[in-house]
Amino acid sequence: MTSSATTAAENRSRQGVLLGLAAYTIWGSFPIFFKALTGAAPLEIVCHRIFWSAVFLSLLVLLRGRLGAIRRTFADRTLLLTLCGSTLLIACNWLVFIYAVQVGEVLQSSLGYFITPLLSVLLGFLFLGERLSRWQQLSVLLALVGVISLTVQYGRLPWIALVLAASFGLYGLLRKIAEVDALIGLTVETLLLAPFALGFILYLLGRHQAGFLGGSLRLDLLLPLSGVVTAIPLLCFIGAARRLRLATIGFLQYITPSLHFLLAVGLYREPFNLAELASFLFIWAGLGVYSGEALWKSRSRGAAD
């Protein structure tokens, strides 16, 4: 690889890391935002997220003069089918996450997003031919022990965590292989569901069952804002996914559940015992091993140059 090609690859990787950090930090603070939407049902909130995201993203596409790219994406049947799949996955993820926040299961959402990196590594191995070093394998094993231990601590199937992990892990895989840029792909995803979302919002309004325009200024302001709050980190994530290996994406994903964990235990005072703490320590040890090896490799390449 030439020097210019190496520099371009490093710049692309650096951009991917920055985009990933932004996405996962914003997602990590989501429980605070969606706790503020108490008074609206989870499905109503998801519909507002979809509809207002579609409005916001469509305006961005229009301002950038990229309507032609939207038309070409809808005309590409293979690509459109892939985006239909990713659309259903991300909508499922949104709904289950909002439900978890509203019923006081932020800690289980944290577990779900701790499982997601393991699934990302597995999907990268199965479908994209990505390989892990021995240290990376050790990090995954440590995290896996922690996740299994946490599952045992719950004493029941943690369905919220499992659905969150499966839906977002598969979403990341589909967006990795979809040959469409972040803005266009995400706009098409939201446009696919926007008519259904708007229909449900109007249905609730007609039956006087909506939180929106129901007398709460807080909901009237925050529900439309949920579209912008939703779109920005997703754009960052998709941009990162197209620049980085799934294994690296998996590593960065620990940011979101760590923040959820801190909010669940520190702010919302959800039940958490010493055995569960030990399980989380295994997960964080895995993160430490992964991070240490990545840092060592980075310094080794710098010394070689």
Which descriptors would you attach to this protein?
305 residues; mainly alpha; 13 helices; transport; cell membrane; EamA family transporter; EmrE-like; RarD
Describe it for me?
The chain is built from 13 helices and no strands. The chain is mainly alpha-helical and 305 residues long. The two termini are 13 Å apart.
The computed structural class is mainly alpha
Task: Give the total of domains.
Answer: 1
Roughly what fraction of the amino acids lie in strands?
under 5%
Q: Helicity, in percent?
A: over 70%
- Please give the count of helices: 13
The parts where pLDDT drops under 50 for at least 5 residues are none
What sequence of helices (H) and strands (E) makes up the elements?
HHHHHHHHHHHHH
Shape call: globular
Could you describe the largest sheet, including whether it forms a barrel?
Answer: none
Q: Count every beta strand, where a strand is a DSSP E run of 2 or more residues.
A: 0
Domain EamA: 16-150
Pfam family, one: EamA
Main location: membrane
Keywords: Cell membrane, Membrane, Transmembrane, Transmembrane helix, Transport
